[in-house]
Amino acid sequence: LVPGFGSLRPSRPLRGCSLARAVATSAQGARPSRKPTPLTPPPGSGPGPWRVDNPTELPGTARPFDLGPFARHHVTDTEGSPEMRLDRWIMKNVCSNWNAAQKLISAKQVWVMRPYCTSQEHRSSVVIPRFRPKCQNSTRLLLGDYIYFPRVMRPAPKRRQRTEHGSEPADWLVSRVIYKDTDFLAIDKPAGWSVTGGKHVGGMHLQRFLPSLRFGVDDIPQFVHRLSTELSGVLLLARHRAAAAYVKDVIQQRAFWHRSF
Q1: Taking Cα atoms as reference points, which of 240, 174, 238 lies closest to residue 206?
Q2: Taking a C-beta distance cutoff of 8 angstroms, is the pair 166, 209 a contact?
Q3: What sign has the CA pseudo-torsion 139, 140, 143, 147?
Q4: Are 72 and 57 in contact (CB under 8 A)?
Q5: Which of 234, 212, 237 is nearest to 222 (CA)?
Q6: Which has the closest alpha carbon to 115: 211, 29, 27, 50?
Q7: Rounded to the nearest 10 degrees, what angle do helices 98-106 and 86-93 cross at?
Q8: What angle do CA 228, 200, 156 make, to 5 degrees?
Q9: Which of 186, 196, 207 is nearest to 229 (CA)?
Q10: Which residues, in sequence order, are bridge partners of residue 189?
Q11: pTM (2 decimals)?
């Protein structure tokens, strides 16, 4: 008791005061902690999935995890060359369109999980897009990686049947000309044929038939644009250098026009 002030004990406990809380706790005894007791991780739940063949499976769960619209591929030593790029794997096993491969990677519709990722990380990446690791076109695939991709695009290697030089007549492309004037040519490109030659194209490219489209002009026609190998459509060619330079300037200035029929 202090003269003139009465008792120093407050009429009600100070709930916001840490000192009052500590005194009350010591007087009433230690309260049990509300924090959950950490579970002991099961054996094998350290770095890496619970099961190598099924990384989304958790121990003690009888119901299999549904990948939804995605499918999974496990990289093994039988893939071929080690450390393959992700975009090249997509173009080889999923789709042969380079632009489509770029969009799948940038939209996180295709992502790579490393071998040290846990089963819970695999599940989270399938359900929540922001938990998917950001991949690039140059991401190297290592042994033991898991690749997730849309289920509708299951890996189906597309093998092209190579044709040797001379299997088609030299004037084969002449029959596919649909428009001709003094400056330009328009041809009907068939599906499955590449515009230019390459390592995996063989003889199925149109560039080797260009000398047959001179029609009395000294210069060999030049492609103004390209179409993908699996597409069919109209290709525009310039018959001489002046026409090719004109079209190049028009495209750079975005002054070209088109008409739909």
Answers
A1: 174
A2: no
A3: positive
A4: no
A5: 237
A6: 50
A7: 120
A8: 75
A9: 196
A10: 233
A11: 0.46
Average pLDDT over residues 89-95: 83
**Which structure tokens are listed for 88?**
């090249």
Residue found by looking up tokens 């990677």 in the block: 105
Q: Dig out the tokens for 70 from the structure.
A: 């995605």
Beta-bridge mates of residue 187: 177, 235
pLDDT at 53: 78
**Nearest CA to 192 among 181, 180, 205?**
205
Rounded Cα–Cα distance for residues 111 and 109 (Å): 7
> What are the structure tokens assigned to 235, written together?
């290709």
Handedness of CA 129, 132, 136, 142 (dihedral sign): negative
**Rounded CA separation 115/122 (Å):** 10
Q: Which residues pair with 243 in a beta bridge?
A: none
pLDDT digits (tens, 9 = 90+) for 96-138: 778 888 899 999 999 999 988 988 899 999 999 999 999 998 8
Contact indicator for 173, 212 with CB cutoff of 8 Å: yes
Tokens of 5: 């002030």
pLDDT at 110: 92
Residue 56 in contact with residue 122, Cβ under 8 Å? yes
Q: How far apart are CA 186 and CA 189, in angstroms?
A: 9
Residues 6+ apart with CB under 8 A from 107: none
